[in-house]
Amino acid sequence: MPYSLEQSMMYVKGVGPQKAELLGQELNIHTVGDFIQHIPFRYVDRSKIIKINEINPDESYVQVAGKLIRLEKIGQGPRARLMGKIQDDTGVLELVWFQGVRWLSSALKVGQIYVAYGKPTLYRQDVNMGHPEMETWESFQESKVSGIQPVYSVTEKMRAKKLDTKALAKISTEIFSVGVFIPENLPSALLHEFSLLSRCKSYQELHFPTGRDSFFQGKNRLKFEELFYVQLELLLNNQLRKKTFAGNIFDSVGTLFNSFYQHHLPFELTNAQKRVVKEIRNDMKTGKQMNRLVQGDVGSGKTIVALLSMLIAADNGFQSCMMAPTEILATQHYRGLSELLQNFPIGIALLTGSTKKSERTRIHEGILSGEIHILVGTHALIEDPVKFKSLGLAVIDEQHRFGVEQRSKLWKKAPVPPHILVMTATPIPRTLAMTLYGDLDISIIDELPVGRKPIQTIHFTDKQRIRVLEFMREQIHLGRQVYVVYPMIEESENMDLKFLMDGYEAMLRAFPRPKYQVAMVHGKMKPADKAFEMDQFVKGNCHIMVATTVIEVGVNVPNASVMVIENAERFGLSQLHQLRGRVGRGAEQSFCILMPGDKLSTDGRTRIKTMVDTTDGFKIAEVDLQLRGPGEMSGVRQSGILDLKFANLATDGEIMTQSRLAATKLIDANSLQPNADYTFVLEELKKRNKGKRDFSAVS
Ligand code: ADP
Ligand code: MG
Questions:
Q1: Which of 78, 117, 579, 603 has the fewest CB atoms inside 10 Å of its own CB, making it the most exposed?
Q2: Which of 585, 614, 643 is the last residue of a domain?
């Protein structure tokens, strides 16, 4: 009778209570189902025995057979080691063990034929083998080990109790040769359509590959299955939310929007901006809550899109709020919006952590009475007990800085959840977006305003510093402004601050007052001081802004045309891209100058090269994902999608796309006509999600 997944390991032939207990303790393997989930981390071909003179020390694991011609214990106590020599008809190989010396020296017999299996290493010109597994020729023949064998990870404790990788391979052989019943969890029509192996066959291939192709087919099937259920859940959440949460209906595009659009727009919108505004408009009139993510590279003009959306809200009698991750940004948004809305019958206010009490009270009243239509602020805006008269739209800028929890608080500010518009300038690769924001609708502004000249990025060496200063001077004489940015990494704040101060002083020496003005901002400054310095730069009263990454996000000074990044190799790619986005916002040719600090690592070099080669944020995000892996991408950790067992978000984009397609098709088919396959996968999803948190009420 085949084993079942629920069966306790104890009853698998050759396991028994002691080993079962150890498996449970050490690897959390209790049932046959747990066991088959313990996927080998590599495979060896144990059927192949090579000659000693064929050993290539670059190879990973090899197997040789020959007579043990010598065995000698060297040294005493914990530093003792066992040296052996094995000989075949082509040569002699030295073997060495540092552990289990006593046991091995009595178990191994000189003169016998053994099969030694291990990793060859080169030591002083000679090849030897450290810690080979030894098996007598007879036992090797008997065990009939054939073909590719799995290698499992085991703990030290397991190894000490002889429950090593080989023992696990034996258990695995038992399970798969008797057979194990692994129920299929994807509809057969789907397996057929996407040419997927059965679930049972796939696990078998992962433990005992029968060939290269079938092994990868098995692996891909399990990746597909995993991603399919992730996508199914996201899509269902999106659907559920649309069903459950009514949204405010903004069906009139009225005087405010129209008169602004016709008479107050300072520029013609790009086609991409127009398209996105249309998408938002369509969302907001459906009667369902909008949950839309707008991705647009730095400088693509997301702010105006937000403003137009807020005007639609106002036209329909609703208030809006706009949240930014930092005070500087919020203030800037407030100023920018106020300027655009001059002479416009729209009340706008700014609420941040440093808003004075009297002002705060005034704002609270204005919000409650409805006099204020647009409230701009930092997260203080959600923490604050502010009560809206009728909040209809929440815009969240640079959303990666906000956690899910914070966003969900916004919902509680209105009886009907406000439409949510999330804007991010951190383009994320499509595969990741599908998973991270799979339950949001996505708009992309993939076009920069006309007349923008692509920023030139140049990588300088330390020796060329004088040239860089000269270049800065030229640009300043042309009337432009310059940023000089230093890395700030929390662990060594004091040292970083010193770098920054030294840099500031060097700038003061190279650009002396009163002819030049140099400002500085960093995270340790009081908000008021920071704001003052920033303001000087924004107003054009100073030429150079020496700063840490506090200026990274969103700050907009179109007259700034040079961005010098010191110790560029210490920044991540997306950060470099963000920083570069601070320039090139006006009509002038802008420059990004990357200065090296420490020696460049390979990754550092790739980052710098990528920056020099492209300004396309999506390309940069792809490279970033490849370099750092999904775990380091913003927002990924909180999302829990790292728990994936088989699929890799950085490399399995194609399978992800396929699985999303499959899930979409199934849902669509079911909404036309209820079908059994859909019911089946829904049941599976419920089983998989038992005990997991339900995110369906959070955007
Ligand atoms: P981001 O997408 O990075 O938030 P902003 O909204 O700050 O970009 O816009 C960057 C700059 O481009 C601003 O100075 C803005 O006024 C300008 N801008 C936005 N859209 C256009 C457009 N269609 N044509 C010309 N300039 C534009
Ligand atoms: Mg912005």
A1: 78
A2: 614
Q: Are residues 317 and 412 in the same domain?
A: yes
If pLDDT is split at 50, 70 and 90, which confidence band does 694 have? very low
Average pLDDT over residues 446-467: 88
Distance 143 CA to ligand 1 centre (A): 71
Counting atoms of ligand 1 from 1, which one is nearest the CA of 585?
Answer: 11
Residue with tokens 């005992």: 208
Looking at the structure, do residues 461 and 502 belong to the same domain, yes or no? yes
Tell me, what's the pLDDT at 697?
37
Task: Mark the residues whose beta carbon lies below 5 A from ion ligand 2.
Answer: 554
In this structure, the answer to whether residues 172 and 26 fall within a common structural domain is yes
State how many domains the chain has.
Answer: 4
Determine, yes or no, domain membership for 595: yes
Q: Is the pLDDT of residue 121 over 70?
A: yes
Q: Does residue 573 fall inside a structural domain? A: yes
- Is 230 part of a structural domain of the chain? no
481 pLDDT higher than 50: yes
Amino acid at 577: H
User: Which of 260, 267, 396 has most ligand 1 atoms within 8 Å of CB, for mutation?
Assistant: 267
Between the CA of 630 and the centroid of ligand 1 the distance, in Å, is 30
Its pTM stands at 0.67
Range of the domain at 158: 1-46+154-179
Share of the chain above pLDDT 70, in %: 92
Task: Say whether both 460 and 516 belong to one domain.
Answer: yes
CA atoms within 13 A on the CB side of 598: 9
- CATH number of the domain bearing residue 83: 2.40.50.140
Who contacts 280 (Cβ-Cβ below 8 Å, separation ≥6)?
Answer: 290, 292, 305, 308, 309, 312, 421, 443
Nearest alpha-carbon partner for 464 in 610, 580, 594: 594
Q: Mapping DSSP to helix (H, G, I), strand (E, B) and coil, where does residue 660 land?
A: helix
